[in-house]
Design a protein that fits this description.
Strands 1, 2, 3, 4, 5, 6, 7, 8, 9, 10, 11, 12, 13 and 14 form a 14-stranded mixed β-sheet that branches. The protein has 3 helices and 14 strands. The protein is 21% helix and 32% strand. The chain is elongated and about 85 Å long. It is an alpha+beta fold. It has 2 domains: 64 residues; 199 residues, Immunoglobulin-like, CATH 2.60.40.
């Protein structure tokens, strides 16, 4: 009987792991932007594509940057909704946020750690408990995206190799800005977004009409990003093998039970 219970648990293990609470939480949102895997072309230049409405959005709070001069003690944008899609090669991330006025100095950015060292979300600035690793920043303004790097205040620069594209559309008091890039680039200054792996991600927004620029902005802390990995065929093969073993065991057990009265 114990062996039977063991086989039942053994058979259900792959599904238990795949459907664990943490995995389900990551897939449905919370603190994780899940970039959903699709076939075909992704809407990397179209923030208004109907495809975006089929993707779950995750909303992150934004607050005024008050730690370093010049500070922003109040900001217009209080939250940003984030969606993402990828096709195994290229990635698109959509930011959506409320801004009552359209201004030429409106801007938005996405930030990732770009190396193995821990990085602070404030441009990778060295802190007491964070040594300060490099960060990769995708900065959008006036429908132009700049691929940037930093490792502390005063080090922000445009990269020599520009790999990120994007487009923004303002409608009815809402900005929708899409950023796009290959998941993995050859540039060593870029973040590598390997499907299945978790990366930290942060956001920043500037309201030009409210004179926000530079460090005067709305910011988030680090959250998490994960590009959905393609299905693993070994998971199904493992499950099929486990079920087959369980069936063989059950058949052998039934035959053994049926033989007992005959021998008795």
């Amino acid at each position: 009987m114990r062996a039977r219970y063991f086989l039942i648990i053994f058979c259900s293990l792959p599904f238990t792991i795949y459907n664990s609470p943490f995995t389900a939480f990551a897939q449905t949102g919370g603190t994780v932007v899940l970039s959903e895997l699709i076939k075909g072309v992704i809407p990397e230049e179209d923030p208004m594509s109907p495809l975006w409405e089929q993707v779950s959005a995750v909303e992150f709070p934004l607050s005024a940057q008050v730690h370093w001069e010049p500070r922003a003690f109040s900001v217009t944008v209080k939250a940003v909704k984030v969606r993402s899609l990828h096709n195994g090669d290229r990635l698109a991330i959509l930011l959506e946020y409320k801004d009552p006025t359209k201004d030429n100095n409106d801007a938005a950015a996405i930030e990732f750690p770009a190396g193995d060292k821990k990085a602070h979300f404030a441009h990778g600035q060295p802190m007491l408990q964070v040594e300060g690793g490099p960060v990769n920043i995708w900065y959008w303004k006036e429908d132009r995206v700049t691929d940037m790097s930093a490792q502390g205040f005063g080090t922000l620069k445009a990269q020599g190799q520009q790999d990120v594209t994007g487009k923004g559309v303002w409608k009815d008091g809402v900005w929708r800005v899409v950023f796009s890039r290959k998941l993995i680039e050859s540039d060593p200054e870029d973040v590598h977004l390997i499907p299945g792996e978790f990366k930290q991600i942060a956001f920043a927004v500037w309201d030009g009409a409210d004179q926000e620029s530079g460090s005067k902005k709305a910011i988030s802390s680090w959250w998490y990003f994960r590009a959905e990995a393609p299905p693993d065929p070994s998971l199904y093969l493992y499950t099929l093998l486990a079920v087959s073993v369980a069936i063989v065991f059950e058949v052998a057990l039934i035959r053994k039970i049926r033989r007992k009265p005959e021998n008795g």
